Amino acid sequence: MAAESEPEEAININSPCINLEKLPHLTDYLPTLKTYTNPLQHNPFFHPSYGFYVTPTDIVLRHIVYDISSSSSSASPHLAYLRAGPRKQIFFDPTDSTRAAIVNCGGLCPGLNTVIRELVVGLWDLYGLRHIYGIQAGYRGFYSTDMAPLQLNPKMVHGWHKTGGTLLQTSRGGFHLQNIVDAIQRYGFNQVYIIGGDGTMRGAVKIFDEIRRRKLNIGVVGIPKTVDNDVGIIDRSFGFQTAVEMAQQAINAAHVEAESAVNGIGLVKLMGRSTGHIALHATLSSRDVDCCLIPENKFYLEGKGGLFEFLEHRLKENGHAVVVVAEGAGQDMIPRTDAQKEEKDESGNPVFLDVGSWLKSELKKWWDRDHPNELFTVKYIDPTYMIRAVPANATDNLYCTLLAHSAIHGIMAGYTGFVCGPINGNYAYIPLEEVAQAKNEVNTRDHKWAWVRSVTSQPDFEKT
């Protein structure tokens, strides 16, 4: 039964200690929307008990670690976000005209098919939606005449979570704001689920802003995807755990190759354009890595405290070494032509050169110069596309399911222009614009990087 809307924002959290982040809601610009009883209330499998529904006063704190001896820890209020989960009242009639669109953009990432599958199954089974569509080939699929939306149902997506890649297909670029929003209106979509990384999220912000400007009854939610784990605010992005696990195979192979040669070096390039999270976590997980090079920690080759000096000592000590390098590390050291300096990919990002091939070449030049007629081998392994294309592991599959269900509950409750994700282990709703602007870089002053240094004994690369 429909009732007059009473958005959750009508309830204020009056506490000088809490600064609750305002989350956009459809009633901000459509105040007369009707509400409906959540169909979960009558679901024969759930039987919602006390505490099942999330209330407007359920929040998640952004930071949970404080130094209580510091005066600043108590001076300012704690930033908080609304907790994700089902609400008693929803703002879409699932049995009538609600039509959902799902799109994924950018590169591949383990778990894409799991998120899509769980969105379809969750919308269908939890809320009774029967009009669910997949947009093919990224943002351009909204308005391309060659790719009509693909109608989805649980039977069609049944085994998708066991498959790598994305069965909806994806692409970079293709963002044309007016064409996309016009197509959303034309198809009658009133829920849009956008899966992608930081570039995709910046596009989602523009879509949300345009929908709000037109005062359309359309909810927009972003689901953060990037194998590099560089999306800010949330604990991690999906696919990251699988990537670290798969990286172990490449590191193990490099270790075997290096150990089996005289003065052997195994060189592994891992994903990480602007952040080194995969390289860092793979190094800590493996313990066979002698040096980890990431974009956040500049390094140099020649001279005291440089990479060559360190590797020479390690080769004399152990007879072999393993080096892990993130793809974004050392890019400022690689010679480029003027054309290469200006080159951009389809998403507008600078095109990176292959730091692994460059480093392999520099290592060989160094050895030939300083150790002529001595045996030396560099085995270079780049597992990038093998890692991106695999199905998600158990941890990421579970994570993708919870992300999808959090997104569904939020958008059904009338929230829009938000991203769902875990903060300190609890799922929350975060404004899209915040996530699009935030970065998750490796903090080389925290304990994790100190652990890397202690495991590898590598230099700090700080010239004195």
TrEMBL record:
The active site is at residue 228. ATP binds at residues 107, 172-173, 197-200. It is found in: Cytoplasm. Substrate binds at residues 226-228, 271-273, 327, 385-388. One of its GO terms (molecular function) is 6-phosphofructokinase activity. It comes from the Eukaryota. Mg(2+) binds at residue 198. Its EC number is 2.7.1.11. Its main location: cytoplasm. One of its GO terms (cellular component) is cytoplasm. Allosterically activated by AMP. One of its GO terms (biological process) is fructose 6-phosphate metabolic process. Catalyzes the phosphorylation of D-fructose 6-phosphate to fructose 1,6-bisphosphate by ATP, the first committing step of glycolysis. Homotetramer. This is ATP-dependent 6-phosphofructokinase. It comes from Acer negundo.
